[in-house]
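Supplementary notes for students who missed Thursday's class. We covered one full example, reproduced here. Read the sequence, then the structure, then the short commentary at the end.
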Amino acid sequence: MFNNTSATLMLQTIMILMDKQNATDVTRFPSTFSEDAELERCYGNYGCFSKAYPWTENRPDNYFPATPENMGVRYFVFTRRNRKIPVLLLADDVDRIQNANIDPSGPFYIISHGFIEGGHKLWIENMANALLNLEGNDAATVIVLDWRGGAQPPYGQAVANIRLVGVMTAHLIHNIYEILGLSSLDNFHYIGHSLGAHLGGYCGHALQKKFNLKLGRITGLDPAAPYFSKTVTLVRLDRSDAKYVDIIHSNAMPLYLSGFGISEPIGHVDFYPNGGSTQPNCKSGKSQQSDGDDMYRNVVGYVSCNHERSHAYFTESISPSCPFLGIQCDSYESFLDGNCTSCDNKHYCIPMGYHSYNVYKRLQAGGLANSNSNIALYLMTGGTKPFCRVHYKVTLKVSNSNESNTHGPESGKLSITLIDRNNNKSDHIFLDDEQKYYKPGDIETRMVAVKDTGHPPLSVIVEWKYETNLFNPMTWRLLKSPSIYIEYLKLSSIEYNTDITVCPKMNKPVVAKLPTIMKTKYCKF
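Structure (token representation):
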């Protein structure tokens, strides 16, 4: 019987074996030339594809692309006029493109799925509608790239197929460019998930090599790691493939831990939400199951929650509920420690997803962003929709007063709820996941992310959760009430660029199960 545990074990075993096959940097050549005499295969107008280096590097197997006829690649065109019944295009069918009634003013979006998926997926429909609904996008054209015929197992074959599909898509874009009489491809934005992200890289590369045209933008949604990690830029998506390449990493973990996404920064801007490896509410592994009863599909469906979150983030970012701001930092750990909380020349702030390019262009115009280098940004999200959160650096000072010292150290969990000027409350959030040991005089710093109320906070509700542990004497409270003496809380907002310090009224302690309101006017220094 298939279950979640066996699914994970099976996937991990497959990936570990692949990793071991891939453990040497030495290119494996056939023992005799006749074993693999054909090292190049040609596909008409789309050119020839090699199986020699670098296509052998860090890959346990190597295939030629399937033929265009076998893959059945199709392009479905949607606009505000035809949301339900699309116009069907083929890469080199010029007549269809001429009769598609595409608005030349654009913008143009190309959306691509990844491995064992297709253009019929709900996330693609949601993203297409969000793009078409965006204010000012009256003339927008969304092209859904459906290459499901080439996206089936084995994985190595699908990896080979995207090389050809990328060139085919370059032909389509070039034909649209010629037929509409466009001056450039600046208005073209390719959005690809997983293998579809690297497909966009091949498309961008082919446009430059064959037609001397450069895509305006490629967005990589958790680009696939297997067969692409630690390879040369020709093999994978990189920032040379478009004028602007932005990446959202959501599942950047080793293969044996069910990680599908690449960890290296490969774009002009790379976002690492929640560190880029695991996402909130994905620990259970619950995700939309793939169609059918195929075991392989169910395995991928089980482990894909983190991987899929990247396209959910991007879709929300088109019309976000808050700024969705990422901040530049040395690492996610440094970000969580509160070392990057000011948007300045040392820590650039860029919104994750759709609106990132506008900010990046302003940084470029000011000489602050170099197109030959990378900006890595970090942020926190929620675990449910809407995912967008605003960030606060919280500095907690445990009182060193006589009362606090007499009471002694405490072990428990502190939570806060922010209240703005309209008395709107944020969600209730703990500063630590587990009970923490606090002693008089301690100063603790944490980054927290809460739902945006629309304004910065003016006061804070603080609560103390106390749990006795029979095996930990520090949690025993026989005569004293479970409580903690807090001198102050300081909240520094990234999004609102504000700082407030709040204190308890008359230096009273925060008692377990008794919410305490702290305000600035209660502070006396």
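Commentary. The chain has eleven helices and 24 strands. The radius of gyration is 26 Å. If anything here is unclear, bring it to office hours.
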